[in-house]
């Protein structure tokens, strides 16, 4: 009986952890059409971020206001562009 409870508890713990493992970066869509994003008009640079996660978080705030956003990866930063 104890073994069965331990197995069920371990299974539920694994399911709970695996359900939380999706990050915002993986869930965020790439807005802007193609992978050949070219910065410039009609896009406007908003800011540089240290990580893609921070860029996506800020971009989603702009998206709620009706803007399109694109996180453009650079060598050491990620740029947030809006249109």
UniProtKB/TrEMBL annotation:
Lineage: Bacteria, Bacillati, Actinomycetota, Actinomycetes, Streptosporangiales
Protein name per the record: Secreted protein
Keyword line: Signal
Organism of this sequence: Actinoallomurus iriomotensis
Signal peptide (UniProt feature, chain positions): 1-26
């Amino acid at each position: 009986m104890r073994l069965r409870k331990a197995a069920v508890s371990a299974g539920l713990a694994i399911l709970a952890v695996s359900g939380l493992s999706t990050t915002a970066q993986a869930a965020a869509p790439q807005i802007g059409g193609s992978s050949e994003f070219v910065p410039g008009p009609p896009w406007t640079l908003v800011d540089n971020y240290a990580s893609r996660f921070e860029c996506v978080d800020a971009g989603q705030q702009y998206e709620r206001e009706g803007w399109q956003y694109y996180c453009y990866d650079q060598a050491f930063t990620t740029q947030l562009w809006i249109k």
